[in-house]
Amino acid sequence: RMGLHIVFAEKDTAEFKRQSTEFAEVCERNGNRVCVYEVANTNHFNIIIDWMKPDSQLSHSLRQLLATAA
Predict the structure, then answer these.
(1) Residue 31, H or E segment
(2) For the chain, which terminus, N or C, has the lower number of CB atoms within 10 Å?
(3) CA dist 27 to 30, 47, 52, 67, 70, Å?
(4) Burial degree of 59 (CB within 10 A; 0-12, 13-18, 19+)
(5) Sign of CA dihedral 13, 32, 54, 66
(6) Three-state SS at 55
(7) How far apart are CA 14 and CA 25, in angstroms?
(8) What is the pLDDT of residue 70?
(9) Cα 49 from Cα 53, distance rounded (Å)
(10) 70 residues of the chain, pLDDT tens digit each
């Protein structure tokens, strides 16, 4: 079973972070492997830019997910 990565930006609202964390907890309770983390120095709109950085945590997460799916 592939894991789930739930990621939010440092500058996201407290409510968005709470919802993300709560969703992760529900997923885990239902038997899913979940990785949750916050990306520093980002907001809801520019967080995606981290995927262009090969050494970023988002890029690492994507590689993990792709390896699991293969």
Answers:
(1) none
(2) C
(3) 5, 23, 28, 21, 22
(4) middle
(5) negative
(6) coil
(7) 16
(8) 66
(9) 7
(10) 678 999 999 999 999 999 999 999 999 999 999 999 999 999 999 999 998 999 999 999 989 888 887 6
